[in-house]
Specification:
Jelly Rolls; about 130 residues; 7 strands; disordered N terminus
Length: about 130
């Protein structure tokens, strides 16, 4: 099992997020999955994730607003490595489009390094597959 992999199996997912919290020294972790609107709480010195399955070449539009500054990234796992195609520090909002380079689970993650919990609300929408030439 890869620590930190986003996984749809609830039991393993809970164990993975708990292990990540211990490894990162965070007090808590929140997680959600799926397309569409979402809302999650990000604890002080903790993080929250929202993960989606994507096929190669598919794209997503994402946007979010946070009540306090967070570090944001989109990441995926390959064996024991973690890749971060999108990374932003100290943001309260962001929007963009991301195209999956290969079939995988992609996770949007918000980390709160400061004091106090924050809420993150937003939406992740799958966009139509682009025509290839």
């Amino acid at each position: 099992m890869v620590i930190g992999a986003c996984d749809d199996r609830p039991m393993q997912k809970g164990l993975i997020f708990s292990a990540m919290a211990v490894l990162l020294g965070t007090s808590a972790v929140t997680a959600s999955t799926g397309w569409g609107p979402f809302q999650l709480k990000v604890p002080a010195r903790g993080f929250g994730e929202h993960c989606v399955e994507m096929a190669a070449g598919r794209s997503m539009r994402y946007d979010f607003v946070s009540a306090a500054e967070v570090d944001f990234n989109i990441h995926y796992h390959r064996a024991s490595e973690v890749f971060f195609p999108v990374k932003q520090s100290g943001v309260r909002s962001s929007r963009g489009e991301f195209i999956a380079p290969h079939d995988d689970t992609y996770c949007l993650m918000w980390e709160r390094t400061g004091e106090g919990e924050t809420s993150v609300t937003g939406s992740i929408d799958e966009t139509p597959k682009r025509a290839t030439r």
